[in-house]
Design the sequence.
């Protein structure tokens, strides 16, 4: 093998993103060496940095492996080239070498020009328009035979996240999960953002929506009133949940219980476990949650507030559902698509007490959306980070306490 | 209000099931009084006991409340009557007063005769055949307009579980969840049952099937070889899982990684997170897992073993799935129905490292099926018990260690 | 072997304590049979029940085993006899057959009379006064050579707990641990008790003290202000903690941080991890926490409130301590003894966010003291129950949220 | 304020330790700017790097704050000066400005020469010998009036950890805690190290000792035989534990139970909870564990193996102890000191199933000692990292499974 080399450039917020040493370390770890031929490091926070690195390896295979390994960090092979595309061989099947996306901002090079990839989310493919003038993402199941799909890594670049301007909890950029950190300040920062986003929404900014993804523990643990208030006060525009959150919220309205447990008195009620079934059956008889609210059968609670405030609700079905309630999307791919659509304009995501829905939402969220993951169990935010949603700030507390403190911070008076 | 009274009888294994004092306590707690007019307690384990209790209350409403509260324990109002039925008002909607089942053995009284309810599972309704000669369960979504549905509680009786004959871990009958109990003996007892059930299956007994419900942590944590061996050795007849377990098992076969983490060397691989996507895409291109095994693309691992051994696999989709793999049932109600059907003849259920699938399976299992729930997190078995699957024995350990110890106990040599 | 028999009696609240069927089941499980020769079951809650049971076994060894097994439930062999005593063979060593206590109310029979055992706690011995007129408990390490120690089980009886008169969360008498139960009502019930106990304390009742056992997460997570308020408002009379809770409380006062993490702004402070060391050093230089408060160096927070209100504080040392602070009892046996002494008159125990201190406190508490165990991790209350403190009600939430909600319920306004 | 500047140098493994960008980011975050006047980055792994950075700030206070913040990363103010020292004002009290150590390798400058600080551990002070020719660490409680203690930060430098030569699990240098990573390879790497260290120990290398810090769950969960084998086979030289591990190990020997739970048959034994008390009393009567082994009362298990193999055992007392056993050090400061002494020559630390002992051990370990932390609960390794023991590799599995797999890997045959 003869030694070979390649020149790569690294641009952007390479200091605060810790990218440079990771890249250099990767080169060394994979048996290469390097020269830093240019190092221009921005001396103010808003300036970007620029480095040019000559990477050497004992043979071309190793060199290719190194380049492959450093490209996701944004290292760009200097010999710039257009991305390569291949037609999908069949409906629902991508070309073997399809480029799999991350959830970071991404561009591809077509006809010598860099284009933004629209609708970025992790683990999907990039589809180029027939006239090769635009690019968007496409999930595997939605690809159609003949669609032009980007393959390989050439001509694709991703941008590390810059540090946000706000000096708040979201600016640390690394998932922080600890039950031993004070959470009061996280709640204060989230509240501040929600206040600002409500202002923006009221001014008509379509990109200021707040998403809450929630599990039924919100109701069990006593957070129903606080969440209903947050919806009613206009702080939430999108709700992702399953059959259970909605059913227990409605059960609380119709029977005063949650999972058969009396919310006020704190003990189980004879046959109380049937209440959620009777609730679901009743709403099925009425036809829809909206109808139940319209007819005054359901007056308070989370779902009623969502109906009143026109919140965009996606209820996704699962195999543990009873019923389900009218409006639950039982097909998981259809539900995923509905969530994808509803994410448009979301500028803050609160993932509260649901591992399944939190991970599913994290899969669909661009890395640029500030995200909070709240769970009693510290392994939920860890799981989220393990699956790529590194931007999520973990808060280890119960759903009810979180929502109550958040609502109080925003003006709720019980 | 004038004091009123009603005579109820309690029959069966009321001593080892702790039913009697619960019933008496409930009567007192709800403001009633009682006389024990007959107390015949079996003096050997196999004998049943019999008591007759006169329940008194200050008024008929309270008396009705008491009777309602003690009936789920098997207390039978002496004035026996047929159950009442009502036609379902609409497709997918039950009569308002429908009787909601538990997962205990249940009978209804029709034309003066007690009939077993077939296909018992919790939280569904009881449908009586048009000629009123048989009864089976029906989930809310499957009921059709005009179906005769049992309502109220009269003429319905449930049987508390007797203690099983085997003096093993399943005979304690109360969910035991503790990280501080030795688990070696649980594994030994489970192994003993699996050995016996394999014998029975080989003899042609259709009611000796073993179900494993599993999550992807089985593969991540290093339990793949052990589970594949268990399947190959004929110890497992039914597998419930999601897209993830199958995808990571196949990823391990095609790439040697799981979630991009190299299983052998223990570090992440550049772009390894793409492996499961490429795996899914490849199987989609081939058409099915069965085809991939038939063509020799996939030779080892869990899914290959299942294909070879004719294991009945139900893969249920979820909103966090990539792909999904061919064979995944994306509609949650259809997946639930497929699970329900596959449970026929299951005599032992192992729920390993998946909260969602464990709870979903627990919802469908009769209480008479011995069940083990294995998870690192002690709150998973607790959650299962909270949702009614009280028969599950909790084992707090990681999926891989459990499966490896179990396989070793049954003869696996790495 | 010739069949043998023995008559035992069971008295007391055998219905609501579920004792009778447990006893009968134990007899059967150990190979015996029985006749219920008398069954008088109280028909009102306040009445006690009485049963006489003839126990038969194939041989005298088995009979002895059965009697041994049912005695802890309160089954009393009818042939009543005085307890047996033996002198301790050496300082710190008990007679081989010493009777080990439970934490339930216990009596021994001396000279034909039943005497209450004073200072009951679990896992200690019973010492009889030289004149055999009284009995108290003695830990193994404190026994002196020649002390008269009760041995065996004869002439010892324990009383199952009756259900308390208050119909609140403590009246369910079984450890309830679930992250899926509403905790608002537990907090409301605890608050109600604290209110009543404060009244009683103000009236001069010495047996109305409230104990809080706490870990440092109270400070980390943001519960310091609420706890300081509870102390200041007179709701707490005894505090058990370690070096860490006190050090972080004082660090918060002197530096505004906890574990170096700024409590207000929510980020770590350069060199902040040194703050607790500097805090401890400073208090050591001053001489004591009391002095630091007296001199005005420490004005706010938990420890200052304790000093001001004369709360009885026991700070127990551990091997992970830095410093430690003046006042920390570094000898674990001395600390245990100080805790034991301070428990006198405690009528409510709150164990918050400390496994070690919670278990240690649970070991010393009589079963008659209503106890709440609060932890993010559901396995902490389970561990407590596994070690015998079955009376503890488990609340799965973070320490700060618990204390803040509790304080609000009692009138705290931030 | 006039702008001021200071030149600092960063030397060492600044690439693979990710130090450089952290330093630059810190400068910017605290309002400073910088020029990189020299950047010599080693181009092979074993080469060190060198950078010179001119730091500018608007005023001298801010500059001092920046320098303070970057010094722990090893940034050295170029104007080199000797460290400052001050005498301790009193026994047990440090000078107000004492320098608090990290657990990284550290040097101080005295008379123009850099000296290694001996016995480095986190959160202690540095004491200079009277003749100012050497320096060692001293815990706060042990300082004596007049001892010369290093103050401030000048003349003190710490060295970031270089990446170890072995390319194994310990070379990733960041605490990895995930229940979703395969643990087979961690166990394999640990076994490889233990094999090599046993070789070295046999060759007489005093710095090749292996420490196991363990909790009682080792015995409860079924890991006793495996650990006893590891000790007997010469793989472990130091054992840190509490009263409970030893008591339950001895209980298993004398009664076949652990916490009263029969280890073989998996159910609780009547009065089994007394076994550990009787065990402790019996050993107290005999006088010591060593005596009990010498007399043949105790033959198998962990403690017997330790006695036979001359393992250095430190048993530290705690407030939840019964007894305690002879040999338990009840004073926490004395126990800490015994642990400190026993750590000499430890080259691998296994912290298994004990939060308290793991954190205490972590506090005393230099960062250069490879460390594994094993617990069912992922928050234990997180807690360890939060307290500074960042070098610990987290393994989320139960103690018994870990020890059994480890022993098997090293040749154990059950």
Sequence:
């Amino acid at each position: 093998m003869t030694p070979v080399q390649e020149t790569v450039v690294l641009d952007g917020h390479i200091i605060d993103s810790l990218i440079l040493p990771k890249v250099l370390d990767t080169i060394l770890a994979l048996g290469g060496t390097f020269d830093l031929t240019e190092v221009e490091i921005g001396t103010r926070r808003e300036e970007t940095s620029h480095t040019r690195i000559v990477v050497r390896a004992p043979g071309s295979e190793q060199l290719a492996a190194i380049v492959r390994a450093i490209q996701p960090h944004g290292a760009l092979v200097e010999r710039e080239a257009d991305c390569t595309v291949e037609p999908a061989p069949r409906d629902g099947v991508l070309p073997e070498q399809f480029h799999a996306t991350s959830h970071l901002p991404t561009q591809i090079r077509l006809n010598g020009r860099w284009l933004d990839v629209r609708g970025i989310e992790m683990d999907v493919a990039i589809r180029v328009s027939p006239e090769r003038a635009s690019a968007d993402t496409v999930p595997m199941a939605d690809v159609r035979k003949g669609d032009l799909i980007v393959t390989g890594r050439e001509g694709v670049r991703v941008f590390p996240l810059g540090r946000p301007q706000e000096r708040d909890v979201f600016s640390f950029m690394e998932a922080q999960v600890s039950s031993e950190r004070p959470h009061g300040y996280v709640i204060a920062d989230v509240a501040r953002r929600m206040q600002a986003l409500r202002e923006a929404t009221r001014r008509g900014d379509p990109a200021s929506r707040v998403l809450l993804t929630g599990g039924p523990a919100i109701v069990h643990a006593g957070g129903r009133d606080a969440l209903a208030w947050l919806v009613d006060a206009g702080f939430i525009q999108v709700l992702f949940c399953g059959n259970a959150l909605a059913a227990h919220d409605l059960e609380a309205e119709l029977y005063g219980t949650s999972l058969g447990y009396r919310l006020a008195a704190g003990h189980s009620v004879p046959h109380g476990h049937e209440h959620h079934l009777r609730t679901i059956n009743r709403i099925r008889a009425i036809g829809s949650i909206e109808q139940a609210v319209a007819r005054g059968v359901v007056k308070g609670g989370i779902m009623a507030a969502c109906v009143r405030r026109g919140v965009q609700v996606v209820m996704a079905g699962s195999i543990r559902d009873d019923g389900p309630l009218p409006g639950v999307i039982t097909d998981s791919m259809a539900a995923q698509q509905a969530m994808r659509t509803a994410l448009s304009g979301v500028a803050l995501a609160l993932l509260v007490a649901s591992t399944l829905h939190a991970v599913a939402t994290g899969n669909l969220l661009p890395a640029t959306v500030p995200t909070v993951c709240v769970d009693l169990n510290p392994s939920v935010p860890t799981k989220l980070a393990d699956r790529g949603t590194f931007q999520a700030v973990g808060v280890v507390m119960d759903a009810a306490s979180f929502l109550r403190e958040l609502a109080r911070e925003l003006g709720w008076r019980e």
